[in-house]
What does this fold into?
Amino acid sequence: MIVGLVGKAGSGKSTAAERLAKSKMELISLDKLGHDALREEQESLVNSFGRGILTCGNVDRKKLSRIVFENSDLLTKLNKIVHPVIKRKALEIVGKDFSDHYIFDGALIHEIGLAEYCDKIIWFECPNEIAIERLMKRGMSKSRAESILASQQYLDSIKESVDAVVTTLGSSEETFEKLRSILFEWGIVV
Ligand SMILES: CC(C)(COP(=O)(O)OP(=O)(O)OC[C@H]1O[C@@H](n2cnc3c(N)ncnc32)[C@H](O)[C@@H]1O)[C@@H](O)C(=O)NCCC(=O)NCCS
Ligand SMILES: Nc1ncnc2c1ncn2[C@@H]1O[C@H](COP(=O)(O)OP(=O)(O)OP(=O)(O)O)[C@@H](O)[C@H]1O
It folds into this structure.
């Protein structure tokens, strides 16, 4: 069974997902696969964005982030290069190391084309003001957090069609307990 955790940046998906990974669920972080994809697609990225995105010969995520989150056309261009790679990598993991249950953790599960592979999808709900505070605690600047959330505003419509919603206003512990009880109801004991 594959369970997808979606929701905007800072909503608390990864924090909860990492706790699930301590149980028998295998965690597939789409953010991390995206970072691998940047290495794999370095040549096309340099062709599209120029050598200015490199530091010491490698794609510098901070530099790329500054470019794409300020310009929606460039974000679309980046997505076109890396999303197919993320999709392929995620499906390779699921196909190869078969275990009982997988978690896809990623804000863009639908856009990447992985929603159709999920048996269940859970939306992590968090108001933008709180997400911004949390992202800033994670070391992000306020303006970067705001521009990422602005680029994800369209995701709000997804919550109408998911299988469950977890509000993450409480502590990380409370969020995890809510997630655990949903999974328990679905017969996934963690
Ligand atoms: C833009 C990049 C270089 C920034 O890297 P950086 O290490 O600074 O940030 P990180 O990857 O941790 O992303 C921070 C948050 O931004 C959001 N985000 C990332 N990529 C995107 C995107 N293409 N569109 C909207 N939001 C995004 C996510 O919520 C993510 O959790 C990197 O995020 C990237 O390559 N993104 C494209 C791949 C992708 O879509 N990844 C998200 C998969 S869910
Ligand atoms: N329920 C919670 N209560 C308080 N803080 C939380 C909670 N969940 C997560 N956090 C904190 O908020 C920050 C962002 O959480 P997290 O990285 O899990 O979000 P995310 O949804 O995975 O975001 P992204 O899409 O950017 O990866 C982290 O620093 C985390 O410690």
User: Anything to note?
Assistant: The longest strand covers residues 120-125. The pocket of dephospho coenzyme A (ligand 1) is lined by residues 9, 30-31, 34, 38, 61-62, 64-65, 68, 75, 78-79, 82, 106-108, 148, 151-152 (CB under 6 Å). Residues 2-185 form a domain with the Rossmann fold fold (CATH 3.40.50.300).
